[in-house]
Amino acid sequence: MKEENYIAFDNYLSQSLSQEDLFAFEEKLSTDEDFKEAFETYRELSGFLERSLDDGHASKEFETNLKSISQNYFEKEKKQTQPTKASRTFRISQLAIAASVAVFLGLFIFNTFSGPDYYDYSNHDAISLTVRGNTEDVVSKAQNAFNNRDFEAAENYFTQILKTNTENIEVKLYKAISQIEQDKFNEADAMLSEIASGQSAYKYEAVWYAALSKLKQNDDEACLLLLREISEDADTYKKAQKLINKLD
Amino acid sequence: MGEKKIHEDQKYITGLLQNNSFVIQSIYDKYVPKVVNYIKQNSGSADEAQDIVQDVIITIYNQASQKNLQLTCPFDAYFFLLCKRKWLNYLKKNYNKEVTINESTVSISDNAQELAFATELFGEKQALFSEMFKQLGDACKDLLKATFKIKSMEEVAESLGVTYAYARKKKSLCIGKLTEMVRKSPKFNQLKL
């Protein structure tokens, strides 16, 4: 294939062929098999290069999100399939279940007689930021601090991560949650509204936490307004509806 | 293809394209357990299943974003078939195992077979592209990396100390070179069908 053909491919794809050249090009595409195959390959390669070389490409964000969901899923899966230990610990765990059922029942009864409270919702799921086999220091420290509810330390680590990884929305979200926990509402609310105005996968998660922040500030009105913004297909929709019912 | 009806499970493809965490999670909850079971029953581990599933979902995403993937069968059948075949290929490659595929227990529609096959081809092509890119000369590699990272050809030209026209020409010639390497590779002809 001649060099000029590749230059023509590029011009065609970037739509910078003149009307006349465009006709000739399309004519050649429909008659010349070899030309067409080369063009198709060229086009597929361009798409491939864009996806694999551009760090800001949507596919990179997708892969990061997918990996974290996958990691969570398989961690649970592996835990479940671990064989149960000696029967004595089994009895202890049964006891623990019975005890927690009692506690939950108590909480349930208590809750039905009192309004909802931030602490009903602040039992954050454990986060998982580290990829298997990769224990970058700050990242795993941040994760451990957050999961151990040491939110002050967690916030510091998240800030450090964001210095080098300024666009990591997931980390921004966790930082905001750590701030709510420390009653740093202004900073948290600003960060959450930034995430909520974007189109990332964490959009409604951010709205949910913004609402919880208002709940903790005893501003039920603002909390309700935020909860109603959560779209029906969001993960947080169901719990948002429940909270709306309790507040209303 | 145009005449076949699009299955309602197309929502999974759309959800993946939108990077919708809820949809991704529901794929894991609904469809991944079956894959994990299958792989575990066929000499695999949960870790291996995790990688296979992840690779398959990324291939589906890439194919959908580049080629407008239209699902004409249930997502379940398509997804399971893809994972299963990827697993069997993996076994063949890494353990040199002769595997017999027992299809009799599940009836798989032609649509699912056809679609899974197309996705598999797409995935293999991407792997070939990536292999060929590694073999490309350093000058071209650097120029392409700069081009797709920086996006503005003016800036690329400036950073490389060449004129705009030269940078653009060089970019198309480098992709052209890659096109030639791909088309000449024996693997490419196997993938052409």
From TrEMBL, chain A:
Alphabetic keyword roster: Membrane, Transmembrane, Transmembrane helix
Keyword Membrane tagged: yes
InterPro entries: TPR-like_helical_dom_sf
Superkingdom as given in the UniProt entry: Bacteria
Alphabetical list of SUPFAM superfamilies matching this protein: TPR-like
Transmembrane segments: 95-113
Protein's UniProt keywords contain Membrane: yes
Pfam families: TPR_19 (PF14559)
Name this protein carries in UniProt: Tetratricopeptide repeat-containing protein
TrEMBL record, chain B:
Xref: InterPro entries: RNA_pol_sigma-70-like (IPR039425), RNA_pol_sigma-70_dom (IPR014284), RNA_pol_sigma70_r2 (IPR007627), RNA_pol_sigma_r2 (IPR013325)
Keyword terms, alphabetized: Sigma factor, Transcription, Transcription regulation
Gene3D superfamilies assigned: 1.10.1740.10
GO BP annotation list: DNA-templated transcription initiation
One GO MF term: sigma factor activity
Location of the RNA polymerase sigma-70 region domain: 27-94
NCBIfam families noted in UniProt: sigma70-ECF
Protein name according to UniProt: RNA polymerase sigma factor, sigma-70 family
Organism: Winogradskyella jejuensis
